[in-house]
Amino acid sequence: MIVIIAIAAVAYLKWDWLHAQYTHTTQVKFNKGDKVYVAKNRFENEGMSSLGIFRLIKPTNNKGESILLIQNIVELSKLKDHRSSYLGNYVAQGYYKFKVGDTQSKDSFLRLKISPELLTDVDDKAMPAGYNFADSDYYVFEESVGYSEVLK
Length: 152
Prior knowledge:
By secondary structure, the protein is α+β, with helices and mostly antiparallel strands.
């Protein structure tokens, strides 16, 4: 009985992490260097005009956690104009803490190399004091991408 309670407690407390790991192991089939495309459902959603692109930042004193912040967007209309949903090339997958506005959470992200020509800066791009970029890669929610071209 104690084992069942312990398993239930771990599942409850780490649900987001467990869900992200399940999604990654059962659905993500990218290899390093693979082309990554914006998912078809992002273009079909009438209320969605852009895709948030995150950057990993870290404390300059190396004390504290790294976190993802939205630094850029990809305007879906720009992709439609070019008749391509190609976003970038796959580097890796990971489970990261991220912040949108005042809200922090954790989720599964894909790490990509994205052409800077696709990116538009967000209005509130300010880097928090005491932080700098951890790398030159870009990060997107795993569910925002797909494996094939959807704009032909």
